[in-house]
Amino acid sequence: MTPAMTILYVKNAAASADFYEKLFEMAPTDRADTFSLFHLPTGLVLGLWSRDGVKPDAHLTGGGCELAIRAPNPTEVDAIHERWKALGIPVLQAPVEAEFGRTFTVADPDGHRIRVFNPPA
After folding, report:
1. Three-state secondary structure call for residue 97
2. Alpha-carbon distance 35 to 50, whole Å?
3. What is residue 104's three-state secondary structure?
4. From CA 29, how far away is CA 39, in angstroms rounded?
5. What is the dihedral of CA 98, 100, 102, 107, to 10 degrees?
6. Are the CB atoms for 61 and 13 separated by under 8 Å?
7. C-alpha span between 95 and 44 (Å, rounded)
8. Helix, strand or coil for residue 66?
9. 3-class secondary-structure state, position 67
10. 113: which strand partners?
11. 95-119 pLDDT, tens per residue?
């Protein structure tokens, strides 16, 4: 058995889809009022589901985990940071060197953490 999708529970699925469309520079493959899907080049499928319609109820949102995006090199980590900062995306941690490589962290409109990183060689 292999997990096939990550779903983030969001306040407003349309607003979250707009946010991730800017972030990923690609449109969702499926979009509805309460649910959108992104089929990402890595094979990850990211779902955005309005938490008001989720059964059983979703009580926890944002900050409990991270969506981690691997950059091809440390220079690209910094370049992505600058692009996203220019889009007004809230930066939780500016680029730093960590034990797992160059990294920074931002937040989506619901407080979900998004980390970009490049592991050391």
Report:
1. strand
2. 6
3. strand
4. 6
5. -80
6. no
7. 24
8. strand
9. strand
10. 66, 107
11. 999 999 999 999 999 999 999 999 9
Query: Between residues 28 and 56, which one has the greater pLDDT?
Result: 28
Kindly report the length of the chain. 121
Q: Are 34 and 49 in contact (CB under 8 A)?
A: yes
CA atoms within 13 A on the CB side of 24: 24
> What whole-number distance in Å separates Cα of residue 78 and Cα of residue 8?
26
Structure tokens at 36: 């959108």
> For residue 11, what are its two tokens?
């306040």
Please state whether beta strands 101-107 and 113-118 pair in parallel, antiparallel, or not at all (unpaired): antiparallel
Q: Do the beta carbons of residue 8 and residue 46 sit within 8 Å?
A: yes
Residue 36 and residue 30 in contact, taking contact as beta carbons nearer than 8 Å: yes
Model confidence over 33-83: pLDDT tens digits? 999 999 999 999 999 999 987 888 887 767 778 999 999 999 999 999 999
Return the structure tokens found at 23: 């972030």
Residue with tokens 């979703």, as numbered in its chain: 58
What's the Rg (C-alpha) of the chain? 15
